[in-house]
Amino acid sequence: MRSVAKRYGVALRTVQYWVRYAGDRRIDRVDFASKPTGAAPPHNRTLPEMETLLVDTRRELRESSALGEYGALAVHQDLSLCGVTGVPSVSTIHRVFRRNGLLTRRRIRYPAPPPGWYLPNLETVAVELDSFDFIEELRIENGPLVDVLNGVSLHGGLPASWPAESPVSAIWTLERLVEHWRLFGLPAYAQFDNDTRFQGAHQFADSFGRIVRLCLGLGIVPVFAPPRETGFQAAVEGFNSRWKKGVWNRFHHDSLPTLLTHTQRYVAAYRSRHAKRIEAAPARTPFPQGWSFNYQLEPRGCIIYIRRADEQGRVRVLGHTCHVGDGWGHRLTRCEVLFDEKVIRFFGLRRREPSEQPLLKEAHYDFASRHFSDSTRCQVLHAQVTNEC
User: Fold this and answer.
1) Residues 6+ apart with CB under 8 A from 331
2) What does the DSSP 8-state code read for residue 34?
3) Looking at the domain 123-389, which fold is it?
4) pTM here?
5) Is pLDDT of 384 > 70?
6) Could you give the CA distance from residue 111 to residue 106 in angstroms, rounded to a whole number?
7) Alpha-carbon distance 25 to 34, whole Å?
């Protein structure tokens, strides 16, 4: 067989295949052309006659169906009602249509916007954002309820976690943020949800709490995510899930100090694991030397609220309802409250085109602050918004 393969210029396995196919017959008496080339057809392949019937039925339903339905399910139901035997399944009929080029439209999947696409200079990884969130009312066995304040940076993934006995106050939250920023530096943005410990009292218009005043005093832009919206707090919510898996659900905590010990150990290991990413993150501003917090200072800088307009194109910010445009119903809006310029600017946001953020409206915003009362632990700011809203 080797000599034959060499003589005719074919591989040895080809000659071996000829001999095996011939069996006991002489090779010169074997009709090799009688065996079809290629693999054998599958036993469950749809017959060409059935494919033709499926295609013709689809065309008839498209032209004459009262409901205008001519998809795979409609074809399957029509042939079953007509008593046709051996009707393929709906998924098989769908594949027949696709094989015959009848399904030209496909679902368009738009790419996800880059992280931080809704804030200036954050998408280009020029600045950093810290997100903070609470895990509330975790029950220690035979112990108190516990709230956990978690934080993580957007680009660097720098984590922080502080368990404390519930309920946690805004003053305790402020102290933890100052402690974290003294150690690692100040980000450009600090993002929160709409918890009163972060934002301030909701029952008063133009109310700014301690955390907002802390951020403005340090030159940080506080950002408040839209209520009942997913994605904006994904970084810290993902860290919340990992913290529960790595700390809360993993160990038995008989007291708050035990939980705090496990949390500190987890955060240190997390920072060590992501050390390269943390070092590659945008640089932070050093914490100012000799800084002291004064509640009574006038707010300076900018506050950003991400909000979704209602069906009439109106956005509610700081207790006021502002109309941003009839064509912007149910769409995202970035509301920038600029204290120095005394204006509120509304920018349109679209996930499909994150780079296009048109200015929808600019409204005058002026206010006069009142004395911040530490005894009552509340703040009321009186604001005047002109009729432009």
Assistant:
1) 308, 309, 348, 349, 350
2) G
3) Nucleotidyltransferase; domain 5 (3.30.420)
4) 0.71
5) no
6) 15
7) 15
Which residue type, as a one-letter code, is found at position 355? S
Closest CA to 218 of 195, 188, 194: 188
182-202: b or e for each residue (b if 16 or more CB lie within 10 Å)?
A: eebebbbbbbbbebebbbbee
Residue type, 359: L
The token duo for 44 is: 């469950």
Residue with tokens 């009574």: 296
Counting Cβ atoms within 10 Å, is residue 326 exposed (0-12), middle (13-18) or buried (19+)? exposed
Q: Report residue 165 as tokens.
A: 């006995």
Name residue 149's amino acid: L
- How far is residue 113 from each of residues 8, 110, 117, 118, 309, measured CA to CA in Å? 62, 9, 6, 9, 20
Residue 96, both tokens? 């027949």
- Shortest CA distance to 332 belongs to which of 297, 301, 295, 358? 358
The partner residues of 343 in beta bridges, in order of sequence, read: 338, 364
Could you tell me if 233 and 315 are in contact, meaning their C-beta atoms sit under 8 angstroms apart?
A: no
| Contact present, 203 and 319 (Cβ < 8 Å) | no
Eight-state DSSP code of residue 297:
S
Three-state DSSP at 82 gives coil
Q: How far is CA 316 from CA 227, 321, 344, 347, 378, in A?
A: 12, 4, 12, 14, 22
Tens of pLDDT, residue by residue over 272-324, are: 999 999 999 999 999 999 888 777 778 889 999 999 999 999 999 888 889 99
Give the whole-angstrom CA distance, residue 149 versus residue 243. Answer: 11
